[in-house]
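S.,

Sequence below, as promised.
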Amino acid sequence: MEKSLTNILSLRNITAVGLFVALGTVAAPFSIPVGVAKVFPVQHAINVLAGVLLGPGPAVIVAILTSTIRNLLGTGTPLAFPGSIFGALLAGLAFRYSKKEYFAVAGEVIGTGLIGALVAFPVAKWLLGFGGLAYFFIIPFTLSSLSGALLGLILLHLWKKGAGKKS
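The prediction came back faster than expected:
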């Protein structure tokens, strides 16, 4: 019985990952061009949701798959990878250790707005021919991740409120 429960939970995680990737892919046209980057607040909301609901590992998988599909479809740039992976990881880890959603928001903003922005600089320089300063990415990445992470927090609270009514 316990083994079948593990399989169901794994199937639920796989299904949730697929749904988050689909949402991120469908919402990809709603990005905002900023220089060589396309900031994508929906991805940051997804990072918070996946980090809280699924954990850091699946959240990173969601970020990688969504970034890959967006790049293949031409709705993203190579900056989607550092711009989402670090935020997803830190959102999931922050929630795992604190059990507080607002720490997941902080993890997303620090992971994407600071770490992801700094990692994006060499990617932009080598792959996209960007000649500016590394700090150019911090402000747009931080604003995008903050707005998206807050959206994710709102969605979490609405989801909890809706789930509470059904009980």
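The longest helix spans residues 138-166.

Coffee later?
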